[in-house]
Fold these 3 entries.
Entry 1:
Amino acid sequence: MIKTKHFYILSLLLFFGCLPENKSNSKFPNIIYILADDLGYGDLSIYNKTSKIKTPHLDQLASEGMRFMDMHSTSSVCTPTRYSILTGEYAWRTSLKSGVLWSYGPLMIPDEKETVAKLLQRNGYQTAVVGKWHLGLDWQLKTSYRENQVIRNDWGLITDYKEEIIDFSKNPTKGPTQVGFDYSYILPASLDIPPYVYLENEKFTQPVSNYTEGSNLEGDKDYDFWRPGPMAERFDFYDVLPNFIKKAKFFIDKAQKNDAPFFLYLPLAAPHTPWVPKEKDPYKFDAGIYGAFVEMVDYQVGQLLDYINVHGIADETLLVFTSDNGPYWKPHHIEKYNHRAAKHLKGMKGDIYEAGHRVPFIVRWPHRISQGSVAHGPQSLANFYATVAELLNTPSKALDSYSLLGQLTDSDSLKEVSPIIHHSSLGHFAIRDGDWKMIEKRGSGGFTPPTNLPTPLGERPERLFNLKDDPSENSNISYKFPKKLEQLKQQLDSIKNLNSISFK
């Protein structure tokens, strides 16, 4: 049944009164949000019994908390999902209507924009981001440059600058500390996108004095693929993942010395390309180098979980593990390894299809979330902001975020779920309402060919699926249910037209 507002308020009061007393003597839990990069729904054994990849630590984490079966990233690529997690709003409401920021795009989140990190800061949290940023930095430019060295999208948003006009002798002027993080240790973008350098509180940790010619540029962009570009001294692609876990431990250790809870946003750079596991022998792993890299993610997360347990803060920590979008796993990978990184789902990263944006989502909160519980029904990563706001008993300002707190703390709760919007790398839209999914255009809208298809004569461009009956999106049933199609089309248009913002 649907819970009433008064019931939730009473539940919150009871919850705060029953929380175990932590070292900070605070009523609020520590929060750790681990965001894998391009991890598939079917990579984890707990989601896919036929997975060729061993994920014992993540499976154990799921057994200790709640596993969501129908969670979705707000986009099927990196940057827009990260924007939504932190702001609670769809990135397509900004001028980023498709694609991602690249190497040198400026900070995407405006100074005045509310973020979950700012919200937690105001409520006494120590905040940190450690990992892949990919939301832009305000790089300092050389004194003279031409307009053709500034790269803008069709809506005027600067998505990149030409490498030759970046002044690497100077630190960026804006980054995570401007959007609510007390501490940051980041890689600017993906591990296959230059510059290859760590920044700590927007300062280079090493001079950007080297240059890599790239790796595997003519291959299938698997294995050790990365693009050419500037690189810091002694930068090691194979050490990035363990280095992030090391820095995460550093922050937690420091935070525990203060009388305040902490929020750690930990966006990993794996298993996104390059696939650079420490163990480089692909024949030892049933899913090759990719499988080895996913197992390295599982191991490193396990190291962090052990650290939390040893330091006695697991019971007072709300921990989330998820992925920013679906897997980079092509049909020939499936054929070669007989491993389905997206399980039964259609498509891959970038696509409007389910494999592009349905992601694993695990939440552990001892004594508050029932062990081994499973949540069904579609949800969105944008809901993190509103969930935190309700936890803090603070009104949510996020346009596209809805609290999951009631569902997390009462697995038997049946709560109305608002429709969610899917978005592909090329900007295709879809809407999900219950079992129904409507895709606005033909084609994948992403990485799987064909990306765009003409509409057959006499038909509408939209496609309609019932995912309960057809989870692999094989049968367009729009002609059978024209009223449902029209209803979803109107819902999508209504949500798209809500208070859109634009900035350049």
Note: Confidence is low (pLDDT under 50) at residues 1-25, 500-504.
Entry 2:
Amino acid sequence: MTTGLQAVAQAKTACNRRCTWSSRHHGTGYASPRSLRVRQFTIPLMSFSTISALSPLDGRYAGKLAALRPLMSEKGFMHRRVQVEIAWFIALSDAGFAEFKPLTAGARTYLLNLVKNFSEADAAAIKEIEKTTNHDVKAVEYWIKSKFDARPELLAASEFVHFACTSEDINNTSHALQLKAARDTVLLPAIDSLITKLREMAHTFAAVPLLSRTHGQTASPTTVGKEVANVVVRLVAARERIASVKLLAKMNGAVGNYNAHLSAWPDFDWEAFSQKVIESPEPFGLGVSFQPYSIQIEPHDYMAELFDAVARTNTILIDWSRDVWGYVSLGYFKQRLKAGEIGSSTMPHKVNPIDFENAEGNLGLANALLRHLSEKLPISRWQRDLTDSTVLRNMGVALGYATLAYSSLLVGLNKLEINEEALAEDLDAAWEVLAEPIQTVMRRYGVQGAYEKLKEVTRGKTVTAEALHGLIRSLEIPEAEKTRLLAMTPGSYTGKAAELARRV
């Protein structure tokens, strides 16, 4: 039977064929590369140019996802696994066990630096070990143990790495850390940028009148700013739902009962210990919320909640992207082009609203994955199957499409220029929308059949200002009300729209 230390040695031997070992990189271990080169040797990694990448996230749009890739890639997953293992190991040393004395300050600093300085070369080294272990979590354990060479204090305690843990203890906590970082440093800032831009537009265009269309037909006017304000309010609420989801993690063993833990120290409060590791702030804890009940896997209900919240946010933005697309089509907005930029390959006059189309398409892709994740992840056969693990590897893809869409939408919004002339022309051709205030005033003063009279004048007809003014003058209502209605135009009939827009 191969022991853990023997496996480490085997992994070192295998890796030595391809990697340089150096005591100058976190003690003895894999040397830090310079763009994946270790002095004169090269770590053989499969590499693709962006134009040969299978996914556009790593191809055409790779540059736009640079912030997400270190967090949600396999390397990012490995990094969090190392973080979890180190936090658990240090905490065990402080648990009061006679067999594992508290680590020295130097040892703690060294271990935390393994996390802090985790590199692509480290990730490559773990993958190399995995070729021997054929187990990704065990490869992380052995990589950490390999870093204990020439450090007697750590070497003596090496069997406490991954102590009493099942792989899922490490994986579920790592996923929580990945999602925490992605949400807090990428997703929410991107949504906040959209909210800031939209709020600015709501205020700037608060009083610019806009002909509404309900069911595609001309309707009571609003303002551009008020329509943008509607999106701001929805997006702020959606953003809060994403931010408020508690990210949960468990470290309770193979089926959630602390079986292995209690076999070693039956009188120790392992549940409280686990909760402390999970909820204590980083770097010595993990800084997420404790899940007390689980099978082998954390139930993933919080993930479903988070992904649903992101998907609902995306649906709001799909709605808005389509609306802006329509406003561009009507000429309400123009789009600025950079020098040399082509709008259409054959029609020089066109500037296609591609940013909003890209946003809509990528939001749809994101939601397809997010909804599958939210529907699939809470389901497990008995105490564990691997279907969750399979789809969890695509969390970064789902969030990647969402992040890409947010970027495209923001780019598109920053290109927009209001076309007040087109807006005014549209309003001036829609005097029929004043039938609503006229009949409302008629009802106030008890004019019988107000709705029906206006219907006869306006429905299915081209309504002019003159026709409406003639009707107003004929009404049996106070002269002051006639004067007020005669002064009204489609562009002035916007109610509290400007006030509401400025309030967001």
Note: Residues 4-28+68-163 form a domain with the Fumarase C; Chain B, domain 1 fold (CATH 1.10.275.10).
Entry 3:
Amino acid sequence: MTQTPSAAANPTGRPTFAPAPRSSWLALAVLLAGFFMALVDATIVNVALPSIRTSLNANESTLSWIISGYALTFGLALIPSGRLGDRFGHKWVYIIGIVLFTAASAYCGIAANDFDIIIGRVLQGLAGGIFVPAVGSFIQLLFNGKERGKAFAIMGSVIGISSAVGQIAGGLLIQAFGEAEGWRWVFFVNLPIGILTAIFAIRLLPAGDAHADRSNRMDWFGVLLLSAGLVAILVPLIQGQQDGWHAWTWWTMAAGVAGLVLFAIWQVVFTKRGGSALVPPRLFHHLSFTFGTILALVYFAGFTSIFFTLSLLWQGGFAHTALESGLLTLPFAVGTAIFSSQSSKWAAKLGRSVLVYGAALVTIGLGVTWFLLANIGAADLSNWILLPGIFIAGAGNGFFLAPNVQFIVATVENSEAGAASGVVQTAQRVGSAIGVAIIGSILFGTLNFGKGQPTPEIIANTFKAGAANAMLMSAALAVVAFLLVFALPKRIQLHGAPTAAPAAE
């Protein structure tokens, strides 16, 4: 539980806190085990997509759903699950989420067809969105002062490490168990982790936060409107290319936009009735917060989709192994891990400029990668040629990722920081889903192999052209994100306001 300030005199006038007990750090380890599993599953599956395509005879829209379905339901669950944790206790919300995630992983692993794998991934994302908010909430409950900052820093390191581990781990598992069925172990690997995490969570997580706040009723109608609106937008984006962009795709997207407008109106009405809205309308009274939320959505739409593009190019187009595909994106992960460890220090020195530099580096890195894909022949492309651009993008991502939420949340009042953080992180996940849907439509829309049996050379060059178009869109989204950064405040007090959890990839 939250420690109380020491009564001892302090010459600085600031409260002092007793050191967190050993049990708090053990609880943190359990929390971060589940957190790590959820983040790894956002990237590990990228290298498995070509194998899934072959094994289940999956079409292009299925591959997009495997990524987008996870991200979308993850994002949709974040805000209501946080509210449920406040009402009923974060311990059991975390445990239920872990158990559901583990069960969904098993279902993905035994999938007999493309429908099964989509359902499994949607359930995985839902479960991840249920238990991940509890991690930040427990850190707030278990730690104070400098120890809370240390705990969040460890959490940030887990984010960086997970991005490095995901693609490589997926490649190693498929290499070990074979291209045909190795993809199933990408999901089975979660079973021992999930089971052990649930057992230790029951033993080590405190239950003292239960009965915290049951005064406000859940806005389930708001959840329905938000979910329906986003699904109505996402389904046509994913299925449109496969089905030929018929009239229903445009009408459904229009209905989705209307659903989001109704959601916004309902949030105002629900608030005026005394309810606790999922997305408090007062947040958007701050113009900088509005642009910051758009920034989070656009940035994640741009950068998370590059793994989708490169994995399909390297395996589907160039016939490389899953491990080789994982090694291709390793420079991005390394750049992210190195520079994210320094981002807080540079944010304190440079203020908003650290985000400007980060977004600029991502834009340059993706721009360089696009230029190389567009102008170098398929036979001449290699890991080493693409390495500089991918590393530069990763370095920029490292600078940008950790301080991003803090700068956006700083645009609202301290009392609104928790709600604002939830909205921003939901925008990140929804952005990832929409980004993959758009990029997938662009990539698969240009895969025209002509008549007859295409040669390996034709396949390689066709995939390369599609990947170049997809990477150009990712770079364009990065440019938009770069411009939106300037809507954020130039400086914030990084350690003064309530601590916001680092952004999860």
Note: Confidence is low (pLDDT under 50) at residues 4-9, 494-499.
